[in-house]
Fold:
Amino acid sequence: MTVKLSAPGGDGRLVATVAGSLPAQDAVRVAEAITHRLALDLPTAPLLAAAEGDPPFAPVAAALRGFHPPLVTSTFEAACWTVVRQRTPPAFAHATMERLAAFLGREVPPGDGGAPLRLFPVPADLDDAARPALLAATNNLRKVERLRGLADAFLGVDEAWLRTAPYDEAFAWLVRLPGLGPWSAEQVLWRGLGRYERVPWLDTGALAAVGAVYLRGLTPAKGTARELAERYGWSQGLWLRYLKAYPRAVGSGGGAPA
Structure:
């Protein structure tokens, strides 16, 4: 089954075209997955309302109005990424993720005659038989064991629970996984699950992003940054995503907002 997304007409609609048959139950799951991963149902109104009383942030909210930060393709992939990138140059880490997809992921035939796509492996793909491929992809025995441990853990958890459990409980489950520490757990919750009720203060560049907007480039104390974030309540993690995306949105950071 291949699902192709398009935005015809520029009217804000996103159309998913399925190549092949799709039972109604599967269609619902596909729609739910697309909606969640692309953050189509993300409520941004509370963030925008709070921004009206926050003059430094108001230009950020205006520049990014309508921005729904997409999540990593899967929560499992987000967790694997935090392990792969540890003590690894970014270019090699990205290449490692591509090798994992090439060696262990599934190939999706193109619907328009283009090149086939490789999906990142699901937890079941990283079983004991995958160890040689994991080593070839990572060139690191420790990371092989950690990725194997992550796969076993994600096979036994309901992702719906990670999305809806109290933040501290989801964090506690993640931080106990092989190779995941507090930084990694925060990243999985933030970029992999869209849990925006907390700011991932261990994120690289978080304080700098706050300072760029609120303090003309000076780095704020953590206490000051937390006070600013608390204005946004359950949207404070989204507030940080807007702050980090803002330079690219106005053309000073290059690339698309993330």
